[in-house]
Structure formats: structure tokens, C-alpha cells
Amino acid sequence: EKLPSAVRLGVAYAPSGSMIAAAVEVEKKIYGDIVTRQGLELRFNNAYFLRSGLSFYPGQGDYRSMKTGYSLGAGISLKSIEVDYAFTPSSDLAADDLHRFSLGFRF
Fold this sequence. Notes:
With 107 residues, the chain is mainly beta. It has no helices and seven strands.
């Protein structure tokens, strides 16, 4: 039986003093195709965040067809607590809408 394995490589860039951060990631599944992901983040007062992302999945069979998926999110960072939310709508690649919540603490 084949184990689900993948290799990922990504880079992010946030110019000093800028409100915008950008990221790109490439994932190669050992027994699958390459997936690319891109994302942008807007920061306000270093406390509020809006995020968007786009993923490109190779189509099945025909190399010219490419499936895409997008996600949207928001976050807030208070003194020692961070709260994030992300939404990915359903598509051919996922059966249901996906809602992700995270809570982080800084010490």
C-alpha cells in the first residue's frame, strides 16, 4: 500500500513597513501531481488581518485543464492572543465547505 507522502517548498515576502505580505508554495505528492498555492495578506495596525489564497491543481488526464480552489480568511492579534478564521468553499476537490478556526497564545 502506498503511503500518502508529499514534499512542500514555500517562500513568503513581507516588505518592512508594508501592509501586504505574499506567499507562494509548491507541493509535489510522491504519487501524484504538483500543486501550487499563492496567498496575500493585508495587515491593519499589526492587529487585524485579511487573507486570500488560490490553489492550482492539475486536471485529470488532459494537461491543459487546471482546477483551482480559493480561500478567504481573517485574523485578529491582541496582546498575547491570536484568533484566525479561514473559509474554503466546496468544489470538485472538496465535498463540503471548510471552516477553520485557530486560537494561539504567545508567552
